[in-house]
Specification:
Layout lengths: L16 E8 L2 E8 L7 H22 L2 H4 L12 H13 L7 H14 L5 E5 L2 E5 L4 E4 L11 E5 L6 E6 L14 E6 L2 H14 L6 H9 L6 E6 L2 E6 L3 E3 L1
Antiparallel strand pairs: 1-2, 2-3, 3-4, 4-7, 5-6, 6-11, 7-8, 8-9, 9-10
Helix pairs in contact: 1-4, 3-5, 4-5, 5-6
Length: 246
């Protein structure tokens, strides 16, 4: 499968960060660490973490093909790999299929693999981001043709606590969505949960009038910190998050 170009990456980055790209199969990750922590082996370590994550998922899916296709939560056997179980738990919280959590789960797995030797890390995987930072960072929201696109974002406080910011869209992009949101953004400590929640919320947005009901659903997802929903000229937000202009 050919990896599509992540056109939005031209606006990413900061002078204090050193960034590189890691790819395997259809996975295409942008990774950044603070320059003070840089060592030449970091790209290789990130590649190894990505390979192990994909191996867990692909190995299990080879034994249970429904894991790849189900649009509803699945109950997994006790011997399933840890990353697969994490995806399944997150999907159950959000009421979606386990693969709805894959990009966020992989981003977190790679980020945490580096955190033992770097102070700050950001991993972006197809619009799903895992971030641990000690300075405030702005995360732009890409929302298709909406006037909010790349003009509105979320402020990550920089308290050193890992957080995931994941986005689903039904009107553009490559991810599967049953709705028509320009952007459904979910924030959580867990990459898998944020990704699954973004899919869930995006599925609920058919038009501007659906934003309120979708936010009510967001409040019911255990562990979710907040959400932002965009459809055309309307934006709705809830939770312990801070919007910022770009």
């Amino acid at each position: 499968m050919q990896v599509e170009e992540r056109f939005y990456r031209h606006v990413m980055g900061s002078p204090d960060l050193a960034a590189f790209r890691v790819r395997e199969g259809e996975s295409d990750l942008w990774v950044a660490v603070d320059r003070s922590s840089w060592t030449d082996d970091l790209p290789q370590r990130a590649e190894q973490a990505l390979h192990l994550a994909r191996s867990e998922i692909e190995g299990y899916a080879g034994r249970d093909p429904a894991f790849l296709t189900s649009l509803v939560p699945l109950t997994l056997p006790a011997h399933a790999p840890p990353l697969v179980c994490e995806m399944a738990r997150a999907a159950a919280c959000a009421g979606v299929g386990p693969m709805a959590a894959v990009a966020g789960a992989v981003a977190e797995r790679v980020g945490r693999a580096l955190l033992g030797s770097v102070r700050e890390v950001i991993v972006e995987n197809g619009g799903d981001i895992f971030i641990c930072t000690y300075r405030p960072r702005r995360v732009a929201i890409l929302a298709g043709t909406s006037p909010f696109s790349l003009r509105t974002g979320l402020l990550v406080s920089g308290d050193g606590q890992p957080v995931a910011v994941c986005t689903s869209a039904g009107r553009w992009g490559h991810s599967l969505s049953l709705g028509q949101a320009d952007a459904a953004v979910a924030v959580a400590p867990s990459g898998a949960l944020a990704d699954a929640a973004a899919t869930c919320l995006g599925n609920l947005v058919g038009g501007e009038d659906d934003l309120t009901a979708a936010l009510e659903r967001a409040r019911q997802i255990p562990g979710l910190a907040g959400a932002v929903l965009i459809r055309d000229t309307r934006l709705a937000a809830w939770g312990n998050i801070q919007l910022t202009s770009l």
